[in-house]
Amino acid sequence: xxxxxxxxxxxxxxxxxxxxxxxxxxxxxxxxxxxxxxxxxxxxxxxxxxxxxxxxxxxxxxxxxxxxxxxxxxxxxxxxxxxxxxxxxxxxxxxxxxxxxxxxxxxxxxxxxxxxxxxxxxxxxxxxxxxxxxxxxxxxxxxxxxxxxxxxxxxxxxxxxxxxxxxxxxxxxxxxxxxxxxxxxxxxxxxxxxxxxxxxxxxxxxxxxxxxxxxxxxxxxxxxxxxxxxxxxxxxxxxxxxxxxxxxxxxxxxxxxxxxxxxxxxxxxxxxxxxxxxxxxxxxxxxxxxxxxxxxxxxxxxxxxxxxxxxxxxxxxxxxxxxxxxxxxxxxxxxxxxxxxxxxxxxxxxxxxxxxxxxxxxxxxxxxxxxxxxxxxxxxxxxxxxxxxxxxxxxxxxxxxxxxxxxxxxxxxxxxxx
Length: 418
Prior knowledge:
By secondary structure, the chain is an alpha/beta fold. It has a domain at 75-234 and 311-361 and 371-413: 3-Layer(aba) Sandwich (Rossmann fold), CATH 3.40.50. Helix content is 34%, strand content 19%. It contains 14 helices and 15 strands. Helix 4 packs antiparallel against helix 11 (343-352) and helix 4 crosses helix 12.
């Protein structure tokens, strides 16, 4: 395995904001011009907008619809038999490494975790192995949360039996709705040392209001000195892939406009131009991944699940308004090459990535290169050298405030504020 080439990087396509339209997909020899009606032909404009909406409706499934309908989970045995088992294992190693690193940085035990878009609870045990004290998981899908609670019971019975001492709460909510009152569903005495969002931040880039609502939920209960971590698709890589799609080996999607992928995944944009008035928001594309973001119609054709491009430089600037400051960002390939040199993470990789002699690793590595990790700190680092490390040592919120739980029975809050 080798780390990502510099060719996978691309300049920020929002650098020039004086244009009438943002054009991330500007290579004319690759991308056809979208037909434009005459300015005075209002009826034609209206008809084209209607047709475009109908076409997009056919192409993309909304993430709310997809996850709320109980998306398919192949189960443990199904995951082992998956053709993308290497990709799954690699992604799990990345998440386990990030969770372990920042939990250890925050304290050897007693950390309080808020996981936004927790899904079916696939990362529960990664947190539990770091001796956390409180876990709150939130998701838009009631069905997913019920599955997460089932997973929790299984972990407790198989690994902890009567010694499980972690308070777990699951909350159903649309975490980027401008009208949500998610934070009111959490005990006012609970604050968090670590907030996590894994492979889901893109759903909240639909518009600025939704992203601000999401960041309010991230930051409001995150303690100063705590961290916000996550994994996302890297904007520069996905745009570069789209621009250079004719040069991608084994690209089976050349006949489809604005589309690239391989045997296991596909990315499809619906348009070439993006209106600058929307800024970095609402750049929609469809994503398909075998055995994961996996959706097909009755004829077996791909039905893409909608996602929104995260323009990361803009995201970093917006986060500052919420007192969140970037401390780490790496493409998965660079993350691997750096972390596998450290003994602790090397042992973890040997445990999680062993016996994966998969003949299709090369194509799965192509997918891995799409992703990056990030970490933000609440508040700027204190670089005062006059203070000792012991004095500046972070103490987890629940330990510092001597908060104990009366019982450790899991809770599910699916109520609304209608």
